[in-house]
Amino acid sequence: MKTTITVNGEARTLDVDPRVTLLDALREHLRLTGSKKGCDHGQCGACTVLVNGVRINSCLSLAVMHDGDQVTTIEGIGTAETLHPMQRAFLTEDAFQCGYCTPGQICSALGMLAEVAENWPSQETADLTAKIAFTDDELRERMSGNICRCSAYPQIVAAIRSAAGELA
Amino acid sequence: MTSVIDWETTPNPVKENRAGIIGKAVDRYEGPLKVTGTAPYAYEVEPPSPPAYGVMLSAPIAKGRITGVDTAAAEASPGVLLVWTYRNAPAQGPRPARYDFFTPSPRPALESDQVYFFGQQVAVVVADTLENATAAAALVNLTFEDGAKAVIFHDHYDEAVDPPGEKDVEIGDFEQAFAAAPVKVDDVWRTPLQNHCQMEPCATTAWWEGDHLTVHTSVQMVRFAQNSLAETLMLPHKNVRLLTRYVGGGFGGKGSFYEDLVLASLAARELGRPVKVALSRQQMMHGTVHRPATEQHVRLGATPDGVLTAMSLMTITHCDRRGNFTEHASNFARNLYAAPNRLTGHRLVRLDLPVASAMRAPGEASGTLSLEVAMDELAEKLGMDPVELRIKNEPPTDPETGKPFSIRQLVRCMKEGAQLFGWDRRLPTPGQVRDGRWLVGLGMAAAIRGNFLLPAKASFTVDADGVITVKQGMTDIGTGTYTVLAQIAAETLGVPLGDVRVEIGDSELPPAPGSGGQFGAATAGSAALDAGMNLRKAIAELAVGDAASPLSGGDPAQVTFQDGVIAIANRSERLSDLIRRNRPDGLTADGEVRPAADAGQWSSHTYGAHYVEVAVDPVTGEVRTRRMLGVFAAGRILNYKTARSQLTGGMIWGVGSALTEGNVVDARYGSLINQDLAGYLVPVQADIGEVEAIMLDEVDDKANPMGIKGVGELGISGAGAAVANAIYNAVGVRVRDYPITPDKLLAALMAAGR
Amino acid sequence: MRPFTYERATDAAAAVKSAAETPNAKFLAGGTNLLDLMKLEIEHPNHLIDVGRLPLAKIEDTAEGGLRIGAMASNSHVAADPRVRARYPVLTQAIVAGGSPQLRNKASVGGNLLQRTRCAYFYDTSKPCNKRAPGSGCGALEGLNRNSAIFGASHACIATHPSDMAVALVALDAEVEVLSPAGQARSFPLMELHRLPGETPDVETHLIPGELITAVVLPPPPKGGQVYRKVRDRASYSAGLASVAIAGGRMALGAVAHKPWRAAEAEAALASGASPAEAIGAELAAASANGRNGFKINLISRLVPAAVAEAREPGRGA
Fold this sequence. Notes:
The complex is a heterotrimer. Chain B is of the alpha+beta class. Chain B is built from 19 helices and 31 strands.
């Protein structure tokens, strides 16, 4: 099926089998392999991308569902020469080891900051009617959809804190 | 042969650390690629032409044979290029009767109609697209004869045997001393089967040029995998080039390799085009290796003032029917505490389960979950502080062999940790500290993990731009290999870090054993240091012998290397100028390291102390880890940033071991019931509070020429025990069957009338 | 995944018409559960009707003082809606206890209600499961059934419904609005949406084939405190061992039955002045364990009084 998705600002038209997931369309068809396949079932978060600015698991979405959507992958966030502040913070804080979950963590972190800015609640939010107190516990809960088996969790918290300050 | 004495007495650039690059918390060398998603992992490498996609089918029985094969529907399915089962898979090298972890040997795929474990790969389908291959794999129709199987560990203790080549170790008379001891602990702990759950599933991209194979895969040991693959394919080793530049987590589970590597290689040859094969997450759970379950019997006997008189840790564990891997959970107990009467050993039960093998800190990770809790129990019975009890039983020399320690700072780790953590605020009586619905507790445990050095080679090349290239068939599985090799090169040759390139993960590079057993940095780094020193020597000799060099005629031993400049006193020139004039194609030197002949004269380990604060809801049995501190002594630290991450990562693995991780076996099917990341629960961000790892200043001159040791596995050793001890301090009940999940803790609380 | 055809529905009427006309068609909303199951060949529709962009995502006040939540609203949007947070905090709490932020951003309200069990024997196609393969048996019954149902199970199936959101909606006395294949709208109490397993655990709801959930309607918030408590093996991103939603005098339990379990006995006991412990004891009289899930009875008997106490704290009301 003909499907046009704007990926990292560029309109890309694909003729895909309806079975192709958004993740496989990015990785195998567009050769944007920064989005990772860790579980293929929404259980790890390594495939996290931003669709119209919102973070989702690209493994549990079909490419054809995204005709007309704006998709941002890790490749659209910054390059090795011009790192985005979030990428720079992950590097500086050593917020990864093997690096396989990292693109998903970074996309998720950016999506998460947008959700906090929108005052979306989480399981850690005590007062649902007040402005979010963006504590470390809030940050941790909101990043719990991204597993890091190397367990760089404390460094990820530090990196997001640091970048959030810079991006604010 | 080399001697430890030479290591101790010979100066080298890492020890001198003139530029201060050794130990510096520099960012990861390959970090910019990883944070931008541009580091290509095995499945992402761009092959020379569009690849075909392979998908494997796994056996749905634990033991038996394939009785029927019908591949017609799969073969007729759109886009299918090839369907293989044991009936038509290409001939491969024969499987040895038993594997030795370090000896390369053939690992044929789809070799026969026999099924040895649930999830064994029994067919592969290759098609033009991943979707077509996946759909067709489900159409392969195999029928099986399901045989009688033994899969439940505790039902087969009567079949337990001594592990190959091993006997129990007894010092003194344990039974008599234990019987006579006035204060005793005598309990049994169980640890479950665990899975590595690396974020990157095993994957391979393979292609051929003539009879030469190029294969990108995800493994920890380059040479082992390359040799084994060549022998599987019945090819000379040199015909196979194996690359593994980025590895999405290993933890021991990629120490070997799996059918993705063999079948991608075979199918690429058959089809004459590149082929990619990956395991699914579900296939990772059964089709790779796991840490086997253990039952550990700990008996401690002590005098009323806390002197251990008898100590025993006996472990029963299991491996697969054809294997001989043993989870040596009792080994570390031979080195940790003084006690004149000691008994340690292992029993092994062979089961029809998937293959057991090494997982992060094999032995210590399981064993500390019993002994380090038993010490907590003993401290309580004695009315002693757990730290004091451990200090009281600190041995002056290795408690079993009497050998001197190369260096041992365990007591200092415990003392500094206690102070930094605020251990004096711990109330010895459990259940005293409430915070809302939570009861808060503190726990501690000691950490110990062995130190190893294996043979390795490396080469260093300096080019006409003064850039140093390190080449080594080593891997970086998230450990920081790229980065520490770059640091060693920069420090050794006196160049900025930015002027170092590191090439690893390629079988055509000088061989190194790979990543495992926390031997990676010491082994690879020592070989690199040797190459660097040899290159210094070659450069110095080149300079003093070059009439055009300001250094001409000088003493090569006096040449210094700093900021890309070589000098003798005030005579100097840029390194790049020398090389450009004399060796425009570059100057290379090789290096190697071998274990010292006399290294066995010392007892050499890494040590640490864990302090943990947990909160437990006594109503529901939920546990939250709030705060963890580890203080470690592990030799010279090459990079405080990457080493700290290794240690905190290991500590968090300890939380998983204590609280959530474990595969459960259904006896009827011989399969693991939790087969994915929704069923096998590794910690998530919200499970982990504040975590800090402190590294003591230390140099272990007897460990290797750099005086470093490993940190990749030390962090997990003891961490789970500290969590368990903190839970006890919070609520006053113990669960000795890991993981300590809410259902078990609730049962213990209710049994205690709470 | 087996091959299928795909269409994006332009309006709800066209969607239900297509579903009626196409054999083995399924609606696709967020996809977070359906695609998971299709990859494992547990679900294998021939045709997907993408209803994700139908204009059914609005959250609107009703004339009765309640809220109508469009079935295509994302879980995250519902949880974040200021009216939901102020008037139905138990719903927000339940939603944010489920899945992960990424899943909640994609998952729809309708899809959440229709998500299928997480029972390991349902997920493993090498095992018998009457829900997945009717007549094959229940692997969980004699198996590792730690997380199976303690209420309303049958010998054919002991699976639980995994939704957190639905537990809160049941406690809030929500109704569902549906559109039939013939284009007829109807509504009924959400409590009547899901079935107990009985002999046909593969039939999970009382929807007629091809019916599309279009909205969930909340009545005005009940008087009294609201709270959702979920106990699980890890702190986040995992299924519940047990959960409870309290909304005033109403109570529902999660992860304990084939459907969100309205604790009617406990409600009645509380209304007649019983203590929370006595009340949940009355409810649990009907519970039965299947081996490894017996702890859920103890867990609920302790969790519910704690949750009731929490709901009675000041400031917990709507």
